[in-house]
Amino acid sequence: MLDLDWHSFTEPQQVDVLGFEKLAMEKAGLIREIIPRYRTTYFNHIIGGYAAGYYVYLWAAVLDADAYRAFQESGDIFNMDLAQKFRKHVLTEAGNQEGMHQYFKFRGKQPDIDALLQKRGLK
Fold first, then answer.
1. What is the value of pTM for the model shown?
2. Would you say 111 and 102 are in contact if contact means Cβ atoms under 8 Å apart?
3. 96 with 102: CB under 8 angstroms?
4. Three-class SS of residue 94?
5. Is residue 67 within 8 Å of residue 82, measured between CB atoms?
6. Residues in Cβ contact with 42 at an 8 Å cutoff, skipping those fewer than 6 apart
7. What is the pLDDT of residue 65?
8. What's the average pLDDT block by block, 10 residues per block, for the chain (123 residues)?
């Protein structure tokens, strides 16, 4: 919630960070006794380059959810033929060609974010 409030600004401006956090928590209906686990400064390490790491984690989650969906769509989450195809194209041949090309050989299509959105209850 707090990070979404930070991203609501449309123009750069000076902000009292602690005051901004307090208002954001009040807006969310949190009482003073509930101390937020994540504060603005918690995200300080993404400034200066680590943001790309977060993107990689999210992209890995997209691939994971989409690959699992392939098993669901087959009607058998223990589908051995599909598992062998995944093993061959994604794991064994990793590095032979560009990663998305290898994934396409397994899945037969580009990954879709819908599986992750559903997994996380966002769709």
1. 0.63
2. no
3. yes
4. strand
5. no
6. none
7. 97
8. 80 90 85 76 64 82 97 97 97 91 96 95 90
Angle of CA points 9, 52, 21, to nearest 5°: 35
Of residues 63, 43, 64, 65, the one with CA closest to residue 54: 43
CB atoms within 10 A of CB 21: 18
Here the tokens at position 67 are 């690959």
Query: Which pLDDT score, from 0 to 100, does residue 9 have?
Result: 86
Query: In the beta sheet, which residues pair with residue 94?
Result: 97
DSSP letters spanning 47-65: TTTTHHHHHHHHHHHHHHH
User: In the prediction, which pLDDT does 32 show?
Assistant: 76
CB 106 within 8 A of CB 86: yes
The residue among 50, 47, 23 whose CA lies nearest residue 15 is 23
Token readout for 86 is: 């995944």
Length, in residues, of the chain: 123
